[in-house]
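Hi team,

As requested, here is the filled-out complex form for the NAP run. I kept the field names the same as last time so the parser does not choke. Let me know if anything looks off before we queue the next batch.

— J.
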Amino acid sequence: MVETKKVLVAGASGYLGRYAVKEFKARGYFVRALVRNPEKFKTAGPHGEPAVYAIADEIVTGDVTSPESIHGVCKGIDIVFSALGLTSPDEHHSSMEVDYRGNKQILDQALAEKVSKFIYVSVFNEDKMPEVPSIQAHELFVADLKKSGLSWAVVRPNGYFSDMGRFFSMAQSGHMFMVGEGEKKINPIHGGDLAKVCVDAVDGESREIPAGGPDIYTFKETMEMAFAACGKTPWITPLPMWLAEGALMVTGIFNRNLAGLLSFAVEALKFDHIAPAYGTRHLKDFFGELASKK
Ligand SMILES: NC(=O)c1ccc[n+]([C@@H]2O[C@H](COP(=O)([O-])OP(=O)(O)OC[C@H]3O[C@@H](n4cnc5c(N)ncnc54)[C@H](OP(=O)(O)O)[C@@H]3O)[C@@H](O)[C@H]2O)c1
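And here is what came back:
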């Protein structure tokens, strides 16, 4: 009899984490979900990510910044998948505390339990943005993972549809600021398509897995598409890069954590982010789905 493999999904209440729970379950895994608040993933998320509370086999409630709350989280686990990270401002915690030290807590337990593979979600183009605090935190963890002795894979997505959803929310308000000229390009990926890439990594040979979606757009085209989905005439005000960077420096004086996260958004607009294409779902349809819910 083939034994059911047990996976820990860390960050299971997030955009990618929910799709990962669903994909692991669809492929026959036993899923233990690590979340801070189980209530949160009883209902669908703001970008259509599924409610997965009912399909997870086990739910562990814990916060990685309180190590005692996640004690034993890897017990009996074969595979760890972590999409756990800080993606919005948190007045109490920094990227270093969550992305690095939080994931390190899980890695230490994975080592003690001798799990067979650890799959971690970091970021694409990390080498072009080495000064961004959240990227530093992700990559410190990646370095520890690589030297841990565990079998590993690092998935490097360029941008999620949920992130592009921010453009949709701004378009709904009728106006958007655009940092720079908006001419840099990206091929973002749907969470469901990315979850397949992540689960494939369990048995795959690749260790570094850059991943994007099927369509390439400039950031400006993405914004215009968001306005079109809302049925509004695009009203976009360009902000020079120097002004955005100045505002970031001022923010940093008052709130370092917020400035750290915003610096990712500003830095990312300086480069193309075209990663190897996976998946079948289109951003235009995603915006259409968001519009149909309003
Ligand atoms: N979004 C993008 O475009 C993008 C692109 C490339 C890479 N990434 C990386 O991919 C990963 C997943 O991104 P996402 O957009 O799916 O993020 P997300 O929706 O914000 O989900 C993050 C998950 O981490 C959990 N988490 C945060 N702090 C925690 C803590 N202290 N203890 C326990 N759990 C905690 C969140 O729990 P709660 O639900 O309780 O908040 C949530 O489940 C992140 O590391 C991100 O940096 C994202």
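Two things worth flagging: The CA atoms of residues 146 and 152 lie 7 Å apart. Residues 11, 13-17, 36-37, 40, 63-65, 83-87, 98, 102, 121, 123, 157, 159-160, 162-163 surround NAP (CB under 6 Å).

Thanks,
J.
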